[in-house]
Amino acid sequence: MITVFIDESGTLPDAKDKFVAVCGVAVLQPKEAENIFSRILNSLRQRNIKIDEIKFYSSGQNTKRQFLSGISAADFKIFALIVDKKSRKIADTPENFSLLVSSLISDVINWYKDKEISFIIDRHFYKKSDQNRFDILTKANVNKNFRLRLKHVDSKQEFLVNTADMAAGSVLWRYRGKDNQFYDLIKENIVIEKLVNWSEIKRRSLS
């Protein structure tokens, strides 16, 4: 069973966010991954860094580098979808968010062919009805022959999902032209990196 953690960086409704990045981080051995990041957390605690959850936009430069170096050292595979919104305001609904995640999941499924995959998503919607709606739409949008396993988690409780947040933040910074240093730490782990615009995503959903 391959576990793929999914998170996004950037927001759909904010027109100032030209891009939104969605990343999946594939982990073959979750226990091994937990050991790696337990060591990182212990190192951060020794530096008196408060550990609640590791998020790209709230972490310092050294924390980012240490965490992303851990992703690289663990040889996690990263799948990245970057959506150019063309400065649109896009409603943050289960329908629209599902289009982004479905496209990423399809790439992961095609990469791993007949492997069993569990997808764990950093909780985007807090209402159970929105989560259920998202699940129904996502399952309808991917390969009908694939048994899609989806789980929504709180990143404070499922720490490894933060690997996807850190990857997505690093990729987004690159496309914003802000800084490549964090992207460079994980670029060898990226197996698919796809840039599309919002119109393409919408067209695919109608085809």
Largest sheet geometry: 6 strands, mixed
How much of the residues is beta strand, in percent? 15-25%
CATH T-level fold name: Nucleotidyltransferase, domain 5
CATH superfamily: Ribonuclease H-like superfamily/Ribonuclease H
Report on the structure:
- The protein has 207 residues and is of the alpha/beta class.
- The protein has one domain: Ribonuclease H-like superfamily/Ribonuclease H (Nucleotidyltransferase, domain 5).
- Helices cover 44% and strands 21% of the residues.
- The protein has seven helices and six strands; from the N terminus they run ββααβαβαβααβα.
- It has a six-stranded mixed beta sheet with strand order 5-4-1-2-3-6, with helices on both faces.
- Strand 4, helix 4 and strand 5 form a beta-alpha-beta unit.
- Helix 1 runs antiparallel to helix 2 and helix 3 crosses helix 4.
- The mean pLDDT is 89.
Annotate the secondary structure layout.
Blueprint (H helix, E strand, L loop, with lengths): L1 E8 L9 E9 L2 H17 L14 H13 L3 E8 L9 H19 L4 E6 L5 H14 L7 E5 L8 H14 L5 H6 L3 E8 H9 L1
Parallel strand pairs: 1-4, 3-6, 4-5
Antiparallel strand pairs: 1-2, 2-3
Helix pairs in contact: 1-2, 3-4
List the defining traits of the structure above.
207 residues, alpha/beta, 44% helix, globular
Question: Could you provide a short overview of the structure?
Answer:
The chain has 207 residues and is an alpha/beta fold. The protein is built from seven helices and six strands; from the N terminus they run ββααβαβαβααβα.
